[in-house]
Design goal:
heterodimer; A: mainly alpha; 14 helices; elongated; B: alpha/beta; 6-stranded mixed sheet
Chain lengths: 274, 340
């Protein structure tokens, strides 16, 4: 019985996820921010890597003035200044990849609910045997999966093209280390989940998906601070930083998931979402 | 099939439904009437387990609502809901819309059912088209198909013929009659009182609480005494006293060429009409039309609501003073006899 229950539960979740994708990917705005934006944000660092390959560090005027923290990085010890510059540049974009696909899940989560409200399709959906946790999970997954997958796809493109652009194999191994893997496979899903929760929560109280998108700035902001502080040499993003970041996001995710579950109730959705 | 006992729903300080006690049998088409904001939608939401009652109890398809999420899910499986606005996925095709709901309701022969209802609603040729390109009527038909797809035992229909062309509206009304014949219970919320009169076995008039439940015929009989109208050439006023003298006639009014005789309660309508016609003809009246003046469900509805608003109860004799409207039945026939 339990197994049967969970099978039908999974089937309902799958149906709603597929429905969300069918619906969302016919929305031009979602397509634009789901495909174009990540591709542009992937192309920019690759172009810069290409530039860094053709222009030496000395020409850029950073040869001997590379920040001390870069020289202290053991992975960069045996590299030439030009290679260190290229590796440092590539590593800067790790943080960019963390936020690369965030607008997509937020927009999807927000539009999936606001769209249902606008089209009055939520009531017939809630009148089916689907349970609220199933619906919440389905809507969350439908928004989360494209965001994570699109980041991973962009990361793969970045990995492949960067291999062709780096000055040496040593640079490549210095760039793509455990910190990157941690960022891509742990922090990205956690951060995307955080965005999805915000998208679901805000759109549950608002009719305007832009409100959710604006609030998403609060997710992007700490990452941008980290990005610029690293750029200015104030902080170093390494495995320890990533672990701390992941732990913090887990805590926020748990809190937001509970809040989202509390807001996402059949009666509240129907009577408060106007 | 549906039973409620003191069902009440409050939202903060507003009472949407108060003390609703109602019983609807299997295979019954029940019309739920009331002005906007009367609590009809809230009642439907309560009975389809979308919201929880503040007080009272209700049973739908043998299950008590609100006992647990599992029981609510069982009820939702037995219930089909047509909301006032079709609420379809506009970017998706008609077929995709139905497939989604067929899956969510776990319909065993989903593909067959989807095809059957698309054909039944005459949407098969447009099945691949996005719903956004559909007319209002087509969307309504698709929403009805969605409500019926899982063959529910109880159907909540909110304005099912709204936006439909006459042909489609007739098709929907016939479908509702078929559903009744199949033993399904239909809870019909409508402002179309002609439709309610035609389709419903009983109607309930709601305004936060239930004002009255009865068959449309009984509601009319309760409110109005039977009236017979005589149209004649010449001077109808001269026959007014003649009719008033009859023991089963309460009063006679004159309007233009028409005499309207209000019968006393308990008067046998056919015999009384025949006797009055005989008297008039014997007295030389040049009758060209005899009709039974009856009131529409709309008259009954408006009278009951007005009574509720003023806190009074219209006595039958007083209600009968209102100008009767020769009744045009949903079939279009006026119960009237014409000479020549």
């Amino acid at each position: 019985m339990e197994a049967r229950m969970s099978t039908s539960s999974l089937r309902r979740i799958r149906i709603v996820v597929v429905k969300e994708w069918l619906d969302a990917f016919k929305n031009r705005y979602i397509l634009l921010i789901g495909i174009l934006l990540p591709l542009v944000l992937t192309a920019v660092p690759l172009i810069l890597l290409g530039v860094a390959r053709t222009v030496s560090a000395q020409q850029l005027g950073v040869g001997n003035s590379l920040p001390a923290f870069l020289r202290q990085n053991p992975a960069l010890h045996d590299l030439q200044p030009g290679e260190i510059f290229q590796a440092a540049l590539a590593n800067q974009f790790m943080l960019l990849f963390l936020i690369l696909a965030l607008p997509l899940p937020v927009a999807m989560a927000a539009y999936s609910i606001v769209g249902e409200k606008r089209d009055h399709s939520l009531e017939p959906l809630l009148a089916t045997p689907i349970s609220i946790p199933e619906l919440l999970l389905a809507k969350g997954l439908a928004s989360l999966i494209p965001g994570v997958v699109s980041t991973w796809l962009c990361f793969i493109i970045y990995l492949v093209v960067a291999r062709l652009l780096v000055l040496s194999a040593a640079v490549y191994s210095a760039i793509f280390n455990s910190t990157w893997l941690l960022a891509m496979f742990i922090v990205v899903p956690l951060l995307t989940l955080l965005s999805v929760c915000i998208g679901l929560m805000v759109s549950s109280r608002s009719n305007d998906p832009r409100a959710a998108e604006q609030l998403n700035t609060f997710v992007i902001l700490p990452i941008l601070i980290l990005f610029f502080s690293q750029l200015l040499g104030i902080s170093v993003v390494n495995t320890a930083t990533m672990l701390i970041l992941a732990a913090l996001i887990v805590i926020v995710d748990v809190v937001l998931l509970r809040l989202a579950a509390r807001l996402f109730q059949r009666e509240k959705i129907l009577t408060h979402w106007k | 099939m549906i039973r409620t006992v003191n069902l009440t729903k409050r939202f903060d300080t507003t009472t949407a439904v108060e003390g609703l006690t109602l019983e609807i049998a299997q295979g019954e088409v029940f019309g739920f009437l009331g002005p906007n904001g009367a609590g009809k939608t809230t009642t439907v939401r309560l009975l389809s387990t979308l919201i929880s009652p503040t007080a009272g109890e209700a049973w739908v398809a043998g299950q008590q609502i609100g006992i647990s999420e599992e029981v609510n899910a069982v009820i939702r499986r037995s219930v089909g809901l047509l909301t006032e606005v079709p609420g379809l996925y506009e970017r998706l095709s008609a077929e995709q819309n139905l497939r989604i709901f067929s899956g969510l309701y776990d319909v065993a022969d989903g593909e067959i059912q989807v095809k059957r209802y698309l054909q039944l609603m005459d949407l098969w040729n447009q099945r691949k088209d996005p719903v956004a390109s559909f007319s209002k009527g087509m969307k309504q038909k698709l929403a009805i198909a969605r409500a019926l797809l899982h063959e529910p035992r109880v159907l909540f229909l909110d304005e099912p013929t709204s936006g439909l062309d006459p042909e489609s509206a007739r098709m929907v009304r016939e479908s509702i009659a078929e559903l009744r014949a199949e033993g399904r219970t239909v809870f019909l919320c409508t402002h179309n009182l002609v439709e309610a009169d035609q389709l419903c076995d009983r109607v309930g008039i709601m305004r936060q609480h239930l004002l009255r439940v009865d068959t449309p015929e009984h509601l009319r009989e309760e409110l109005w005494e039977p009236q017979v109208t005589f149209r004649m050439r010449g001077r109808p006023a001269s026959y007014q006293t003649l009719l008033s003298a009859l023991p089963f006639v309460r009063s006679v009014t004159l309007s233009g060429d028409t005499l309207t005789a209000t019968l006393t309660s308990g008067a046998e309508r056919q015999e009384a009409t025949a006797a009055m016609v005989r008297r008039l003809v014997e007295a030389g009246a040049d009758l060209f039309s005899v009709g039974e003046a009856s009131h529409s469900l709309e008259d009954a509805y408006l009278t009951l609501l007005a009574d509720h608003q003023t806190g009074t109860q219209t006595p039958r004799s007083q209600a009968s003073q209102q100008i009767p409207v020769p009744r045009t039945s949903p079939g279009g026939a006026t119960r009237e006899w014409r000479r020549g």
